[in-house]
Amino acid sequence: MWIILFQVKLRSSTRGDSDQPCPICCDVYTPKRQQVILSCSHTFHRTCLERFEKLSRRDHDVGMPLDKTTGGTCPICRRQNYEKRLIFDGETSYQDRCACRIQAYWRGHKAREWYVKQLEKLPMPAHPHLRKRHLHRKMTKLASETLADVEKRSREIDELCDTVDETLVTAGQAFKEAEKVVRERAQNNGAYPAVGTVARAKPTTSKLSVDWAVASNRALMRYGRDTECAVCTVDLPVLGDFVDGGCNAVLLSCSHVFHKQCLLSVERYALTRSRTCPICRSSYRRTPWRCPDSFQHDTVIASAQKY
Predict the structure, then answer these.
(1) Which of 56, 117, 202, 287 is the most exposed place for a label (fewest CB within 10 A)?
(2) Is 258 exposed, middle or buried (0-12, 13-18, 19+ CB in 10 A)?
(3) Mean of pLDDT values over 26-49
(4) Cβ(255)–Cβ(191) under 8 Å?
């Protein structure tokens, strides 16, 4: 029996039936549809043959002539009493064709890449049309590289912005905690919070005497170079604003000048108990910044130089 089946398959393979479409549906053999071979060496889809047999029996029931056989006749050679077996030659042939097609596409892709690289190495063509195509390829390559570099830098900038956002959120939470500690201190009538919380700056006053005239004149001599508040980097009031009647600025005993609100903010959020200058880090006393009209000019300059 197996010898007969081998001979039948050999005749079918010699004709190349598995490489051809199904004679009934004219569709190729694929792994999703089973293939059968008859004892007459003809191959079909299993579903196609079953439908053919079903329609043949129905036509026989209405009176059409049909051979009186159990399995019917072959759709091609009309052989009676055939036997059928499942085979996988069509599935194997389909897989081989797909593999060959994929390999052909890949070889074509690599050949085109090699051809484009060889064209880039060639000198500038003399023909106008070829020169235009050559320049077009070069410009397209440069544009693609530039676009890729811009996208890479854009991603890096986005990552940097995300990091900055996270830092701002963390800083905001820290400021909220600081404000909470300040409110608790205000509720406790100026007492510091319990151990374990953030220690806030405690105002301290120096008992040393300060020559405010000397400090004011030193600040005036520095005013030409440093015209910005070191805390908020906003310009300090001009000379006429405080000479004519005072301004919203304070003078420290170390001769540095700040906006009043900026200095109060620094004192409020300081993490140390001692009050130090934001620039020179020395202890200080503060007073409103005004022009020392009560001192003689020469005496003030001499005192400043001695200081």
Answers:
(1) 117
(2) buried
(3) 89
(4) no
